[in-house]
Write a structure and sequence with these properties.
The complex is a heterodimer of chains A (467) and B (202).
Chain A (H helix, E strand, L loop, with lengths): L5 H7 L2 E6 L2 E5 L2 E5 L4 H9 L10 E4 L15 H17 L3 E2 L9 H8 L7 E4 L13 E4 L2 H10 L1 E5 L2 E8 L8 H12 L7 E6 L1 H5 L2 H10 L7 E3 L4 H7 L8 H11 L12 E6 L6 E3 L7 E3 L13 H14 L14 E5 H4 L2 H11 L9 E5 L3 H10 L1 H8 L2 E2 L20 E4 L14 E4 L2 H10 L11
Parallel strand pairs in A: 3-4, 3-6, 4-5, 6-7, 9-10, 9-12, 10-11, 15-16, 15-18, 16-17, 18-19
Antiparallel strand pairs in A: 1-2, 2-8, 13-14
Chain B lengths: L5 E9 L6 H4 L19 H4 L22 E4 L11 H9 L3 E4 L4 H9 L3 E4 L2 H12 L3 E5 L4 E4 L5 E2 L4 H9 L3 H23 L6
Classes of the chains: A alpha/beta (467), B alpha/beta (202).
The complex binds iron/sulfur cluster.
């Protein structure tokens, strides 16, 4: 048989019917449901008088619109209505639900892996573009719209167009304060925000193999910011060790049988990729986004672009527009830009490893005066784990607020949001105009860098904060 | 969904790359759970000042582009969030086709599900069309013929996968279609997978 990539193996293993023109009907093994993108899908189900084909293959949770200051009352009436609607749908259609006040609540892309719902070799969909995250387990995972969710609910299958394949090879040794987030941002800066449109991206190389699952998830999570719906890492012993023993993971002999299958998934030697991109990690300093698209990212030590020096007219226009929205001076040093807010959290960087990296910088230091800094764990389980390690006390002693789990200021659907002109050092994934609140200005970076910015009161180099 | 054949009218020019779905439909409006009546929130923060007054000069606040049947945009229009509200809002505004060198992939799929025709053309062609759109020239998008015609010029061909085109022309619902055509195949797939990967059925 012709050598195949991981993507091709996952694709082939889920074909229900070939539809021609690179399209196929794919079987969908898993669907994660949240309160914001699902209401209309359930309405369509109800209107058509349909049941879920396999209720047990879905997992519902509220994460996007919920408050993170407390969990007792939901002040925002529209958010309360949305959560009530999710709970009513869960009851009516009979799908599993991670209750808002329960131990498994959290961001869709954090709790999937934590509960063992996310498994290698599966297809996983969710009404959320960062479903790419689950590709870190060697799963074919992608974001879909509400209408597609309805089809998955009713038919457990979805028409898809086969992607081309891109191999991203990470070579060289990285600085200990260069994280997956920096690698992802550097990659997007290199290939562009649409550099991977139409491709399934697979990350390979010794640096990837050496990464813990959290960092693999960060890489795959950010893949959508390069325009690709699919980021992948081949499953290996690190993956299996992470999964073993989780509530929904296969147990005992079934686990061994599953591992035996999962071991066949990595790309074959000699498999063909349509495109190969190589990144030398030794060249990657901590990254900071300066504009309104994630590809507008520079090393923290760099100076901002000066549109007058840019010859390509469309690139010049984009730079002018971004600098103006961001309220930045062309050519100025990025480091030293004063910030008013810090957000540590999200499905990109809200895991325990991320909180540890931020706490290492915050330890025995103080948040600069005038800076409002919040830490929002990615899940209730992450929050509990962090508290067991005392990370919450490190953060609160430094002057950070310690919150309940949710999407929070990543998407600004609750009261965690920027006011016009506020400038935020954020560990989330999107620096789009208004993403963290209308008129707000977002600088994307790693948790260590965000913590350093909180302490300094301006964009700072985390490497100067660790002896 | 009703079937689609052609649409003709002015095209709003958005000569900008990476117009993401947060710009098309800001997240705070996602708290609404209806899919109708979202057109008024389309491009909200570009169209309106914080006090609710119109931003003068913005293309969608300029006649004849207030409810344009066509948008011509820079690369990567509709990138970012998967929110289908972005397409529902465009549809609510009156948009029936989006012409760009590349679209966000999830947005692209969402368009196909909602009778908004995604027209992908080479960057040079789109650049030219952006000029014509800004000048107020009428555009015709013909799904049957798979062409875009800018008034007074020869038609430009585009492509939609054949089955998707057929569904759009007839206004078929994809869920109905999948269930009607593939129910047995899906069951057969499950029967095999239950044998080969029993842990997915525990
Ligand atoms: S944390 Fe942000 S990116 Fe992740 S699921 Fe929530 S809103 Fe989406």
């Amino acid at each position: 048989m012709k050598p195949r990539t991981l993507y091709e193996k996952l694709w082939d293993a889920h074909i229900v019917a070939e539809l021609g023109a690179d399209e196929a009907l794919l079987y969908i093994d898993r669907h994660i449901v949240h309160e914001v993108s699902s209401p209309q899908s359930f309405v369509s189900m109800r209107k058509a008088g349909r049941q879920l084909r396999r209720p047990e293959t879905h997992l519902a949770v509220a994460d996007h619109a919920i408050p993170t200051r407390q969990r007792d009352v939901i002040d925002e009436p529209q958010a309360a209505a949305q959560i009530a609607e999710l709970e009513a749908n869960v009851a009516e259609f009979g799908l599993p639900y991670a209750a808002l006040s329960g131990p498994e609540q959290g961001i869709v892309h954090v709790i999937g892996p934590e509960t063992g719902f996310t498994l290698p070799g599966t297809t996983i969909v969710c009404g959320d573009s960062h479903t790419t995250t689950h590709g870190a387990f060697g799963a074919l995972a992608f974001g879909i719209g509400a209408s597609e969710q309805t089809t998955v609910m009713a038919a457990q299958a979805l028409r898809q167009t086969k992607a081309r394949t891109m191999k991203v090879e990470l070579i060289g040794h990285r600085h200990p304060l260069t994280f997956a987030k920096d690698i992802a941002l550097a990659l997007i800066a290199k290939i562009g925000a649409n550099g991977a449109v139409g491709y399934a991206v697979e990350y390979v190389g010794p640096a990837v193999s050496a990464m813990a699952m959290a960092e693999r998830m960060t890489l795959c999570n950010m893949t959508i910011e390069a325009g690709s719906r699919i980021g992948l890492v081949a499953p290996d012993e690190t993956t299996f060790a992470f999964i073993k023993g989780r509530r929904l993971a296969p147990k005992a002999a079934m686990f061994d049988a599953a591992c035996a299958y999962w071991r066949t998934l990595p790309s074959d030697a000699g498999a063909h990729y349509d495109k190969v991109v190589t990144l030398d990690l030794a060249q990657i300093a901590p990254q900071v986004s300066w504009g309104t698209s994630p590809n507008q990212t520079l090393p923290v030590t760099a100076h901002l672009p000066d549109p007058a020096q840019i010859t390509d007219p469309s690139e010049r226009r984009e730079a002018e527009k971004a600098l103006s929205y961001m309220g930045l001076t062309p050519g100025a040093a990025l480091q030293g830009t004063p910030i008013s807010h810090v957000f540590i959290g999200s499905c990109t960087n809200g895991r325990i490893e991320d909180l540890r990296a931020a706490a290492a910088i915050a330890l025995d230091r103080k948040v600069a005066s005038g800076v409002k800094a919040i830490v929002v764990p990615g899940s209730a389980a992450t929050r509990a784990a962090a508290q067991a390690e005392g990370l919450d006390r490190i953060f609160t002693a430094a002057g950070f607020e310690w919150r309940f789990a949710g999407c929070s200021m990543c998407v600004a659907m609750n009261d965690d949001r920027l006011a016009p002109g506020d400038r935020c050092a954020s560990t989330s994934n999107r620096n789009f105009e208004g993403r963290q609140g209308a008129g707000g200005r977002t600088h994307l970076m790693s948790p260590a860098m965000a913590a350093a910015a909180a302490i300094a009161g301006h964009i700072a180099d985390a490497r100067e904060y660790i002896a | 969904m009703t079937g689609f054949t052609t649409v003709t009218g002015p095209a709003a020019a958005m000569p900008e790359e990476n117009i993401d779905t947060d710009i098309i439909f800001p997240a705070r409006f996602l708290l609404l759970t209806a899919r109708e009546g979202l057109g008024k929130h389309a491009f909200h923060d570009r169209r309106y000042h914080a006090d609710g007054t119109e931003v003068a000069g913005y293309v969608l606040n300029t006649d004849p582009f207030r409810a344009p049947p066509v948008i011509v945009a820079g690369a990567n229009f509709g990138s970012g969030s998967s929110r289908e509200q972005a397409v529902w809002a465009l549809h609510g505004l009156g948009v029936r086709a989006v012409i760009a060198p590349a679209l966000g992939e999830i947005f692209h799929n969402n368009c196909l599900r909602n009778g908004v025709i995604p027209v992908i053309l080479p960057p040079e062609t789109v650049a030219q069309m952006l000029g014509c759109a800004a000048a107020g020239t009428a555009f015709t998008v013909d799904l049957e013929a798979q062409t875009v015609t800018v008034a007074g010029q020869p038609p430009t061909p585009f492509a939609i996968p054949p089955e998707r085109r057929l569904a759009l022309l007839n206004g078929w619902d994809e869920t109905d279609l999948v269930l009607a055509r593939f129910a047995d195949d899906i069951t057969a797939f499950e029967n095999t997978q239950r044998q080969t990967q029993p842990w997915l059925y525990a």
